[in-house]
Design a protein that fits this description.
By secondary structure, the protein is of the alpha+beta class. It folds into two domains: about 10-45; about 55-190, at5g01610, DUF538 DOMAIN, CATH 2.30.240. It has four helices and nine strands, in the order αααβββββββββα. Strands 1, 2, 3, 4, 5, 6, 7, 8 and 9 form a nine-stranded antiparallel β-sheet that branches.
Length: about 190
């Protein structure tokens, strides 16, 4: 047999505890209002928080006049300083990919993002005739041209924008797929 606490109290004791019940109820209402305000504020600020998924880096690049597939399919997160334009992209691991030629992405790629360009690029190299050259910048000077310009220091290389529409598949160094891609390139060079 269960007896509730309230049944053990006399009428006078109920009157004594009534103000405390009201205080507790008011305290819970204040907490509930604070929580509701916090949730509303979080929902309002959500669009201003920098997203970190592959689709969001793609959206960011496209909003800045660049093709969405400049970074590989293994983007883990990114950060952008909106005041300075400094972009840092974190990959799950360093990897090889292929646009027109093979490229190598470090696990962290840094650049200064502006409309139509990534300048001061660090963490991306491109293979040119058995040499690995650092890509110093990527630009789209005229979006109607259908070309993306790669600055590899000693030269500027124009590559079809269509190669950058989707993020490239990226293979970790030493993986079977990376070796297959390298072999494909070697065969093409022998022709």
């Amino acid at each position: 047999m269960t007896t509730h606490f309230s049944t053990l109290l006399t009428k006078t004791e109920h009157q004594t505890f009534k103000p405390f019940k009201k205080q507790i109820s008011q305290s819970n209402n204040k907490k509930s209002k604070k929580m509701s305000l916090f949730l509303l504020l979080a929902l309002l600020l959500l669009p201003f928080i920098t997203p970190s998924s592959q689709s969001s880096i793609r959206n960011l690049l496209e909003a800045r006049g660049l093709p969405g597939g400049l970074f590989p399919d293994n983007v883990e997160s990114y950060s952008l300083d909106v005041k300075t334009g400094e972009l840092e992209v974190q990959l799950q691991n360093p990897c090889f990919a292929r646009f027109e030629n093979r490229v190598y992405f470090d696990s962290v790629i840094k650049a200064n993002l502006s409309y139509g360009g990534l300048v001061g690029l660090q963490g991306l190299t491109q293979e040119e005739l058995f040499l690995w050259l650092p890509v110093k910048g990527i630009a789209v000077n005229d979006s109607s041209s259908g070309l993306v310009l790669f600055d590899i220091g000693v030269a500027h290389k124009q590559i079809s924008r269509s190669l950058f529409e989707d993020p490239p598949v990226c293979y970790p160094p030493g993986s079977i797929m990376e070796k297959i891609e390298k072999r494909k390139m070697d065969i093409q060079l022998q022709r």
